[in-house]
Amino acid sequence: MAEGKKAPKLDEVGKKTSSMARMYYEDSRRPPTAEEISAALQPQVGYEDMTKMEDMNEITLLANVKERYDADLIYTYCSAILVALNPFKFLEIYSQAWVMRYKGHRLGIQHPHLYAISEASYTTMADKKEDVSVIISGESGAGKTECTKLLLRYMAARMEKVSKTETMLLETVPILDVIGNAKTVRNDNSSRFGKYIEIIFDSNNCIAGSRITHYLLEKSRITFQAKDERNYHIFYQLTEGATEEDRAMTTLKKANDYRFLNQSGCISIPKVNEAKDFVQTRKALTLFDIDKETQNMIFKVVASVLWLGNVGYKNNNNSASVLDGPESDAALQKAADLLSLSKADLLAGVRTKKLNVRNEITIVELNAEKARDSTDALAKCLYSFTFDWVVKKLNESLFADKYTSKNFIGVLDIFGFENFTKSKNSLEQLLINFANEKLQKFFNHHIFSMEQEEYEREKINWKNITFKDNQECLDLIEKKGTGILSLLDEACRFPKATDMTFLANVNQSCDKHPNFEKLKIVRSTFKINHYAGLVEYDVIGWLDKNKDEIPDHTVEMFQNAPNKFISDLFRQETEEAQKAREASESGGPKKKGVNKLTVGTQFKLSLTALTEKMMATSPYFVRCIKPNMDKQANLFQSDQVQDQLRYAGMLETIRIRRLGYPIRYLFKEFYQRFKCLVNSQHHSSGDYDVRVGGMLPHINLADGQYQKGITKVFLKQEASNVLEDRRAVRLGEVLLIAQSWYRMIYKRKEFAESRKGAGVIQIWHRSKNQRKKFLDDVDSMKKIQNFFRMAKAVAKKKAMLEKKRKEEEERKRKKEEERERRIREGKLTQEQAQKEREDEENAVNDELKAALKKGRKLEQLNAAEKEKQEREAREREMMSAAPEIKVEVDKTIYCPPILTVGLKWSSDKVVDLDLSVVFLDKNGCVLDASFYNQKETADGAAKLNQDDRLGEKAAADNEQLTIEFAKIVPYARFGAIVVTCYSDGYNFSDTQSPVVKLRDGQKELFSTDITEDSSRSMDGKNKHTTFIPCILLKSGEKWIAKPEEKLAQGGRWMEALPSIQTILLDQKLIPPLEGEKAFPKPFRAIKGEEIVITSNVTKLLCGLGWIGNEDLDLAVLMFRYKDFVDHIDPVRHNKSKDNAVFHKGDSKTGKGMDDEKIYVDLAGISKRVNELFFVVTVFNAEGGGGFSRVKDAHVRLVDATDFKTIKDDEKELTRFQLSRSCGNRNAQIMCKLWRVGPSKWNVIAMGEPSSGLFYEHLVPKVQPFLDDAPPERVFQVTIHSGKNLPADLLPYFRVRFDRDSQKTKQIKKAKSKWKEVVLVVGEANAMDIGIFHKKLGNDKFFGQIFVPVEHDFKKKSFKLEDRGKKKEKIASGAELVVSVENITGNPAAQAYLANFKKKP
Fold this sequence. Notes:
By secondary structure, this protein is of the alpha+beta class. Helices cover 38% and strands 23% of the residues. It is built from 32 helices and 50 strands. A seven-stranded mixed β-sheet has the order 1-2-16-3-12-6-7, sandwiched between helices. Strand 1 and strand 2 form a beta hairpin. The longest helix has 108 residues, at 717-824. The N and C termini lie far apart (118 Å). The model is unreliable at 1-31, 586-594 and 1075-1084 (pLDDT under 50).
């Protein structure tokens, strides 16, 4: 053993360096990394391959394994067999880098590893097109399940692209672990079932699917666990790790509350998080297309198993079972609810049985003990059927049936040998150990029997090695007629047989068997001497376990259950049982009375099928060793390990592998594979026997490294490695030559194509230059010709004009001579002559005018036709299909047919955030919008469903809009989601957790928080009132959402429009805007837009302007809700009754600006008035035409608080454009001015066409736009405190409502808590609260707040505002904290209301 620790010799270094050279050729000419070089040159610890040991016995074998284990080298080779010790800790040897280290390398190049066996099995499958099996065996807790996971992970990781199939393959094991693994005294994650996973590959050697076959789920664990053991993991995930929603669904409590879980005293496992594992379980099930509803049904069935365990029974006077108290009744009810059955049906299914005597059905009630057994049997069946269903679903999802004709790699992970000394070994342990005996027999047959038989058959020089055969033990268990399983099946067929009669029969039949030991003291046990040791079995309960059946009427009840999932479970099991029974009876006559295969028979048939399948494959073996019984890291118990190595037959295996020839080739295969290593002069002709005989002496192998048989060449493992390495180097050289030749051909072809292309380009370039010169000459000639033609035409024109002038002068001269002659003759007077001259001159002028008029008309017609064609071209261009837009895939969201946009926020202040969407055409011009005053776009595509103006805390969205893309007008190209802060003086930083979410139904597509961030700002400021979370782009026929998350300024979406256009311009999606930008300040209001008039605006000017001769009039209609109050017009009534509204100027023609004016004193309007409508009418003086005859007609609102600045541009608040397409209607309702609070007004743009000239005609027209009067309410207003106010302030408060006004007493002590309470009566939806300070008889105004009363609220903070007066200044950041409560139904409120109505 000391040699293993010595430094490597020079020849060894050379060999390892050549290994790296081979790696260089094999891995696409990749040079070895520094890690690979250090790994190849590092000194070895012990022997990596135990067949190379010089002194070979049990002591040296154990010492070698221990030496490597102490150095954290847990893997050791025994030729092609891997010995793996469980380290009980995590080792950094399973990363992707380790996968790449072993990928493409044959067995033996790298250090021993499970990945090397995995790669060898893959290579065998891919190269030889053979099915392969990897048999992983060992004791319970030796690490078999972890080896299986690592092997599957390697197979998935070595694929060039990891698809969904590989991901699903890796998730099968965790799912099976959850429902099929449990904690035992030997292992915290012990597999309580066996599984054979077939990884199926397609013709390209890529993973195409898998198929899972499972064996013998340990059902007894469901109802009973030994001390310090647990039930299956899924039970604890549901009871200890499920969410509150899942708990409510399954009605489960904690694990200690259930009989099936609290027997062993073990509930938790260290370092296991049940809640986290349960989340992973749900994710894994979802990956296999098991939706949440089906998952819930699985968990309900599992939960029902626990509730069935809590059902207790007692005997009544007739010795029949009844429920044992209300707790049992409740448990049965919950189980029935979870299984969608009635409690009565479920109770009848578990406490009764039906006897068929001479075709007469008799119902027999079971006693308490049998009822308990029947309930436990049902619980086992429910869980077992669910387990089978999950495995079947996994197979269906992995397309196993579709690829059954392709090659596969089978991984066998089956329960390890078990021998419980502190608890009983039952039927499950016998079957588990029987399976291990079968695997040991398969191992012996493959390693010893088959190999030595072939040596004899090929007549090579060989001396047989003896080994321990376990066939006698297998005969003791499975032999037909006298085997223990056959005797057990026979006992199950006799109605009066018991466990003890079965034991007596076994003792009598097997007494003389060398592997059977009968106990002298009469007990319920017997012993079997297995290959791994002597095991004592207890037969109590074996008959019931072997039968494993529930009554037929119970099965029928579940098959007819209303829940489809439950009924499918039992129908599935019935169909599979029928198939298994038909398969077992196909070889012989059917036996009367056999309705179902017993557990033992089923297991024996499954093992036989598994063995036959593995016999048809090329096997690889992994022997897992458990280093200690305490499950501790770095602890090596020599006795424990030596026993496992001994009964695994490792010494005999090493001996036969060392002395034998494990690698063998047919003559043809050997010749074709290795002829490249021998010079061609040694290649003889004839059959392959002769060729191989002539080649072997020249292949440079030492004597004893190979033998030639009758049909095959036999090689030692080392000899095979040497040949393979030589062959790899030779193939690398050939590949280099082939690559060089190919590169030369490729470059030569590329050069020829380049030269040919250069010639074509030269020809084209020359022809282009010559053609250009020719075309330039032609153009020059044409210009010269045109010049000469022009000169000739000009000369000719001059001559013609001169000739015409002379002819005209001659005509005039002759006419004048004729006129003089007539005058001389007295036929014409001088006056008559002058009249003729004037008539002639007028005729000429009229002729010229007619020609000019005809030309002008023709020009107008041409211009109109040109304008029409341009308009139609623009319309066609706008209606054209949207181009495909290239966007970043990971930053783009493809919109669903209906997109939901939600806005959520909260605030202790009254901060109103608004959610809007605006659509634009291809030029960036606005088409339509959906916002707080226009809930729905004209095409119905976008709709605002929720509008919250207070920002109350809510579980769902405060504001929400939906966009149905199929309804959007076809010429819309872009859209933008906009969030604005509508409240004056506030911004996004005054809100809490504002967030915008895009959803497809309930599925979230995109989410972003509205936070102040310099990287998001478009203006460099740190406080903003506009947020653009994303823009919408039409790409082809689809709409996509592109996140932007930009911050800008503007309290309304129209003010944010320039920012939207800037985003589109920056991304070159729209052309530069020409002329006036959309919505400049002052902007043109869109129909439905609400314009806020701040509290410092106390007077308004409404101006009507137009250009044209039509007579337009501006009028005002005044209402209190639905009741008409007053009107103002320029003809009959130019002033309101309260003198707050008056008309000035009645112009008959329009000059363009404020041709008619109406002044409104907002502070002076009567409290009775809360709505004003501004209406424009037109008198059709010349035969109709109405508004279509005027140009640039508009109504504008101007802040007229200070008349000195009324003409400043910034004083214009908004402008409403009159429509010219109203037909013959002669009125337009332009806007509505409505009272929000006692001193606060807002304006809504309308633009509704109507008819009527006088107010009597127009009052009915505005009725649909009037608001309903709110009910008369009494509010209790509590003023709590203030912020940022003077410390010595002694205030009093005035609360104003639309019908009531109350004043509080002055606070007498500074810094005292206010908590002033006021009652007010009214019908409005808002009120004002002013704060004053009384000092030396003067009331000093400190500010006022505007308070909405649509909802009650407590302790909301409002920012103080001024009243628009010059000398009144509000302290920066001053606020009032108030509460408002509607107490109309309160008796005190009723009394206050009665007193209020008595007042004059």
